[in-house]
Structure formats: C-alpha cells, structure tokens
Amino acid sequence: MQPATPSASRYYRPELDVVRFIAFLLVFLHHTLPSTEDPRVAHLLRGFAPAFDAFSDACSFGLSLFFTLSAFLICELLLREREKTGEISVKQFYIRRILRIWPLYYLGLAIWRDLRTSAQR
Fold first, then answer.
1. Is 19 exposed, middle or buried (0-12, 13-18, 19+ CB in 10 A)?
2. Per-residue pLDDT averaged across 30-37, rounded?
C-alpha cells in the first residue's frame, strides 16, 4: 500500500481529523460541564467532586491542542506555498483564511442571535 501523495492544489490530512475532534470535544466539555462550586452539583457528585473538577480542568488542554494543531497546519500551508511559488503572499493567505472562517462564524452568530431573541419572547 502506497502512501497518498498530497495534491498540489489541496492540502488535507485525514489522520488529523481525530486530533481535531478530540480538541473540539475537550473544549466543549470544559465549557459545558457544570461547576462543583454550585452546591447542587457538589451534592450530586458527593465524594467525586475533586475528580470531576480535575477532569474539567484537564479538558482545558483542548484549547492548547487546537491552537497547536492550527499552528502546525498553517505553517505547513505556508511552507507548501513557498516551495511551490518561491514566496508567500500574506495578503492571499489572509483572504483564504477569511473566506474559510467568516461564513461559518457569521452563520453561528446569526443562529445565536436567533436563539437568543426567540428565548426572550
């Protein structure tokens, strides 16, 4: 079995999807797990509260993992561009980032605003 050769126009590493998912899951859990400072939660957890807090704190590693993965992928893309063209166009790099990130960002903001206004009714 031969390793897949990366396409010159696209760069995708499917083996990093698992790492990306783990980073997302850790960040999600860190922000959604209830705090044991709430007496109701502490009462439910009883003796497990310290372990629960430790797990919640460990989930904050997801953000570091996510930023490390992002830095690796961005550096890889910039190095591939320099290898291919001999230079790096910072302007084109930011345009590509904006076109990739902003549509999902603004969709998320629109959904959040809609949910917030419907909850206030």
1. middle
2. 84
